[in-house]
Each structure stands twice: as C-alpha cells, then as structure tokens.
Amino acid sequence: MAKLKLKAESIQDLKIIASAVQDSILRASDIKFYQGGRYMNFRLLRFINESDSSARAQSALRVDGVINVRSKGIKKTDDNVMAVLLDINFTKTQSPAGFINFVFANQIEIQVEVECIDILLADLTDAKKTNKTPKH
C-alpha cells in the first residue's frame, strides 16, 4: 500500500484529512508547538481507514500559520497520556483565519488559532498490521 500524503487548504480538504486521521493514537509528548516558526507538529499512529485489513502507520501532521494554541483536558506535564483523535474541524473567524479544533476521546481538545487552513499529513512508515482496532 502506498504511503498517504495529503495537503489541506480548505474546509473540504480538512474534512478529508480528518477522515484519514480518525482513530489515530498519540502521546501528549508527540504534540509540539514551535512558536518561533509558527507551526505545530503531531506525530501519530494512524489507523489505515482506507484498507480492508487492520493496520497502522506512523504519520506526521503539520499545521502552519499558527497564531496561538489552547488545550482542555490535558496538562503540559502529562507527556505520557495517550489520546485518541476523533475529529478535526474548523471554525472561521475573519476569513481565511479561524480555529482548527482537534477533538480527542476523554474530553481532550486542542484549539489552534491559524491565519488560514494550511495542513500537511504524511505517512512516515509503511503500514503494519495490528489487532487493536477502533470499537465503533
């Protein structure tokens, strides 16, 4: 299976990426905000929804044009807390700016204020079979 690489510059593009990363798992320490560079990285173990077999791939999600980041339900000291990504959505403020909302299980949320939608998703490794599948 080919490695996935997607770019989002619109709400419709973001919905595709949200679908691709649904049920990804990551640690709090896998989320980094680089304030000086105005970007944010998420390193995640992506469930391969586009395959018939149960597999996961190590993937990276980069958000550019970041102005500010807020979180709820997670502390900066909780580096080993595991989170399951459920959805990504966008709330427009003054076009093209807005908030990209990352919604996780267990009432964890990360809200990223951005200049515009500018996200890149790329698989870093080949998919590996797993017996741990989402329960929905």
In short:
With 136 residues, this protein is mostly beta strands.
Features:
51% strand, 11 strands, 1 helix, 8% helix, 5-stranded antiparallel sheet, single chain
Describe this structure in words.
The chain has 136 residues and is mainly beta. The chain has one domain. Helix content is 8%, strand content 51%. The chain has 1 helix and 11 strands. The protein has one helix spanning 11-21, and strands at residues 5-8, 25-27, 31-34, 39-47, 55-64, 66-72, 82-92, 98-104, 108-114, 119-123, 128-129. Strand 3 (31-34) and strand 4 (39-47) form a beta hairpin. The two termini are 24 Å apart.
Structural class: mainly beta
Overall pLDDT: 92
Number of domains: 1
Q: Output the radius of gyration.
A: 14 Å
User: What amount of the residues lies in strands?
Assistant: over 45%
Largest sheet: 6 strands, antiparallel
Oligomer: single chain
Number of helices: 1
Ends: how far apart?
24 Å
Measured as a percent range, the helix fraction is: under 10%
Query: Any idea what the shape is?
Result: globular
According to DSSP, the number of beta strands is 11
Residue windows where pLDDT falls under 50 for at least 5 positions: none
Instruction: Please provide the ordered H/E string of secondary-structure elements.
Output: EHEEEEEEEEEE
